[in-house]
Amino acid sequence: MKPIVYTRVALIVTNPQALRLGSLPRHHFSQAGGIIGTQGADWPLDDGHQGIKPSHCQIVWDDGAFCLVERNGDTRINGNQAPLGRDVSVRLNQGDRIRISSLCIDVHLEQEHHNLPDPERHLAEHTIEELLNAEHTDAGDLQNLPAPPGFDVSIPEPAEPSAALQTLMQPLEQISLDPLQALDAAQAQRAPQTPPISLDPKHYGLSEAPTPMDLASTRFEAISGSRSSSGEDRMSQHDTPSYESVSPAPLHSTSTLPAEPLLEGLGASVGNLDAAASYRLMLESGQTIRAFIQGLLALRNTTHGHQRLSLQSRTLQPIEDNPLHLGQSYEDTLRALFSTERSRVHLSPKAAVEESLAELSRHQHALLQGIEAGLSALLQAFSPAQLTQRFQRYDPDQTKAEQAGDWAWQMYNHYYNELKSDRQRGFEKLFWEVFEQHYDRALRAEA
């Protein structure tokens, strides 16, 4: 067999986006060869990385083949990490890939180029219409080609017109009008050429189907798969998939279900979920969020509690950026937290809840300190020494020691009755005065 002689080589850059302006992404070298490099080379290239030398490499025709010779640059071929080396020559083959700096160049060896509609373009750059309309596809040229041995290229003589007419005039009764019978007849004719294909019992419906030859050989596959011959075993009843045995698998938290973002936000598994359990989880989560928000709003509402115990921050800021602290209704608070049109200078729902819970914790700590200080002040106010000193100022003439005990008890009874009368607020005022001082001090210390 006569070896193929290539008359030129086409080099095409596969990543032309790496080329700088002015560099062409393709070039053809004839048997005369040429230099690949920068300005002044037969094929000037520039990728902007300064990795291409003026005479980077060279295409030469040597011993009946195109060869690549490295000159002054690092040239790699077919994925090799090491460059060729200076003045090292390598024979180019069809489909080789050359690496010059950041450019990837494919090698296309071409034969006589006068057969192409446009010799200046590579075969891959021609359209199908151009190739089909080329002059070398002329039928006269094909008839002049030598016939293979044993192949009869003689054109049969046309049949007699009377025979063709008799065929067309045969009675309609001889032609079957049943489409199924016609398909069966066509299948019987093709049976020796298309052996039956048995079903795959393990991957039925999943394995790749063979390419159908014609409608006659595919009408049964379209319904029930290829039919097995009498000598082949059909699928057993045990291997046949049963619809009764198929039941919906439970949905896990890793599957695609509406509650999946909620489970991800919870950060913990709640077990297997089907559609009903997923709906119930989302419903109960919404009810829980509603109760939580309403509870926080009620704690901050001062109309149903003591003014001194209201959850008010002791730190001043230009705006209140927590939607839970704006004193709005539940509906307005919910929209301020989760609406797509919520304010851009409000805390996120998670940050707002975290800040509110931290405020509750500080409030509880300060509350305990205030109560403890208030009770200590009351206890100190009822000490015997302090009461005796106070009673002596009420009745300075009491000097009889033998009556001191009875006198002190009588004075205490008068003191207690006055303390609980409607005109006195000293007891309550003493507690709250001390409480507020220590409560405020504790809040400011932790703010």
Automatic annotation (TrEMBL):
Transmembrane segments: none annotated. This is Type VI secretion system-associated FHA domain protein TagH. It comes from the Bacteria. Residues 139-158, 185-211, 224-257 are annotated as: Disordered. Coiled coil: none annotated. Residues 264-441 form the Type VI secretion system FHA domain. Residues 39-100 form the FHA domain. Pfam families: FHA (PF00498), T6SS_FHA_C (PF20232).
